[in-house]
C-alpha cells in the first residue's frame, strides 16, 4: 500500500493531538482527585469542631485541660486574638496549667508550644483576662474604627504562642505554624467567627514597640483564607 509523505505527516499530527488531549485529561483528573480529599478534610474538621468532649482533631496534638461542652452554651466569642507570651520554649505547658487552675487570671484559653502541642486550658464558657481594652486607634496596621474599644478580651478568644524569649522578634516555629493552620480553622468553625475577625494583639492594642505581637500569625490566617 502506497503511503504519501503528507498523509503520514497528518497521521502523526492526529496522534499527537490525541496524546495531548489524553495528557490534559490525566492532569484534570489528578487535580480533581487532590481537591476532593481537601474538601472532605475541611468538612471533617468543621464537623468535629462543633463536637463536645475531647475530640481527636486531625493535624493537631491537643492536650485537653478542659473539655469542650455544648457549643450552644459556650461564651459568645466574636473574635480571635493572637498573642505571643515572650516566654521560653516549654513555657506554654506551665502557662496553660496555671490558667487551668485559675481560669479568669490574666492569660488565654488556648496555648501553643514551640513543638506544636496545643493546650486547651479553660472551659469555653469562662473568660480569661487578656487584651488591653482595644485601646489602639492610630490605624497603623488595620482600620481601628471597627476595633477601638470593641475588640476586647470579653468577646475574643485568645491564643498564646510561646517561645519568643529572649529575642522577642523571633517568629513562630514551623511546628507552631502547622498547628495554627488547623487550629484557626477549628476555632472559626466552632464559634462561627469570620476570617476578618482574626486579629494580632498589636493590631488592636498598643503593645511592645520592639516587635509586632501576633502580626505574622494573624496575617497568615487571613492569607490562608477559608
Structure explained in plain terms:
- By secondary structure, the chain is of the alpha/beta class.
- It has 2 domains: 1-48; 61-224, Peptidoglycan recognition protein-like (Lysozyme-like), CATH 3.40.80.10.
- Helix content is 38%, strand content 12%.
- The protein has 5 helices and 6 strands, in the order H-E-E-H-E-E-E-H-E-H-H.
- The protein has helices at 5-48, 91-101, 174-191, 201-204, 215-224, and strands at 61-64, 79-84, 110-112, 117-120, 156-161, 198-200.
- The protein has a 6-stranded mixed beta sheet with strand order 1-4-3-5-2-6, sandwiched between helices.
- Helix 1 (5-48) crosses helix 3 (174-191) and helix 3 crosses helix 5.
- The termini are far apart.
- The model is unreliable at 1-12 and 26-40 (pLDDT under 50).
Write a brief structural summary.
The protein has helices at 5-48, 91-101, 174-191, 201-204, 215-224, and strands at 61-64, 79-84, 110-112, 117-120, 156-161, 198-200. The chain is of the alpha/beta class and 226 residues long. The longest helix has 44 residues, at 5-48.
Mean pLDDT: 88
What is the number of strand segments?
A: 6
**How do the helices and strands follow one another from N- to C-terminus?**
HEEHEEEHEHH
Q: Give the fraction of residues assigned to helices.
A: 25-40%
Structural domain count: 2
CA-atom Rg in angstroms: 24 Å
Helix/strand/pairing class, anyone? alpha/beta
CATH class descriptor of the largest domain: Alpha Beta
Which fold name is given in CATH as the topology of the largest domain? Lysozyme-like
The count of helical stretches stands at 5
CATH superfamily of the largest domain: Peptidoglycan recognition protein-like
Largest β-sheet summary? 6 strands, mixed
CATH architecture of the largest domain: 3-Layer(aba) Sandwich
Strand arrangement within the widest β-sheet reads 1-4-3-5-2-6
Beta content: 5-15%
* Bulk shape: globular
In angstroms, what separates the terminal alpha carbons? 63 Å
- Detail the poorly predicted runs: 1-12, 26-40
Amino acid at each position: 500500500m502506497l503511503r504519501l509523505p503528507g498523509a503520514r505527516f497528518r497521521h502523526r499530527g492526529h496522534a499527537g493531538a490525541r496524546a495531548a488531549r489524553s495528557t490534559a485529561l490525566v492532569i484534570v483528573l489528578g487535580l480533581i482527585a487532590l481537591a476532593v480529599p481537601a474538601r472532605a478534610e475541611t468538612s471533617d474538621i468543621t464537623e468535629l469542631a462543633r463536637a463536645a468532649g475531647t475530640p481527636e482533631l486531625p493535624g493537631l496534638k491537643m492536650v485537653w485541660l478542659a473539655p469542650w461542652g455544648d457549643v450552644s452554651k459556650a461564651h459568645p466569642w466574636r473574635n480571635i486574638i493572637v498573642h505571643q507570651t515572650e516566654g521560653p520554649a516549654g513555657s506554654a505547658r506551665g502557662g496553660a496549667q496555671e490558667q487551668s487552675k485559675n481560669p479568669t487570671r490574666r492569660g488565654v484559653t488556648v496555648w501553643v508550644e514551640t513543638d506544636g502541642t496545643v493546650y486547651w486550658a479553660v472551659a469555653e464558657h469562662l473568660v480569661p483576662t487578656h487584651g488591653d481594652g482595644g485601646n489602639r486607634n492610630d490605624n497603623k496596621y488595620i482600620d481601628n474604627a471597627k476595633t477601638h474599644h470593641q475588640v476586647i478580651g470579653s468577646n475574643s478568644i485568645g491564643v498564646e504562642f510561646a517561645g519568643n524569649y529572649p529575642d522577642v522578634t523571633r517568629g513562630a516555629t514551623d511546628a507552631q505554624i502547622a498547628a495554627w493552620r488547623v487550629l484557626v480553622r477549628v476555632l472559626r468553625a466552632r464559634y462561627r467567627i469570620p476570617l476578618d475577625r482574626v486579629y494580632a494583639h498589636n493590631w488592636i492594642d498598643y503593645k511592645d514597640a520592639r516587635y509586632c505581637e501576633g502580626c505574622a500569625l494573624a496575617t497568615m490566617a487571613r492569607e490562608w483564607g477559608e
